[in-house]
Amino acid sequence: MKKYLNFGASVRAIQNIVLASKARALMQKRYHVSYEDIRAMATPILRHRVLLNFHAESDKMTADTVLAKMIESVPVPRD
After folding, report:
1. CATH number of the domain bearing residue 37
2. What is the pLDDT of residues 26-60, one digit of tens each?
3. Residue 79 lies in a domain
4. Is residue 34 part of a domain?
5. Owning domain of residue 27
6. What is the pTM for the complete model shown?
7. In 3D, which of 18, 55, 12, 61 has the Cα closest to residue 40?
């Protein structure tokens, strides 16, 4: 996915993913954050924090599709 990105997210983006994941877990009446919480919050938070380059535009990629492929490439942690 490096082919499609000019700039990525900063450390603050990761902090916001953690905070949003905690809030999502609490809204679902859980006291722990699951991997699915992080996956669910990653795209909405990172969407406006990544800057696509010309390759992405020429391949008709959007930030959502690039982020979806990045998230899919991360292996699910084992229990």
Report:
1. 1.10.8.80
2. 999 999 999 999 999 999 999 989 899 999 999 99
3. no
4. yes
5. 2-73
6. 0.82
7. 18
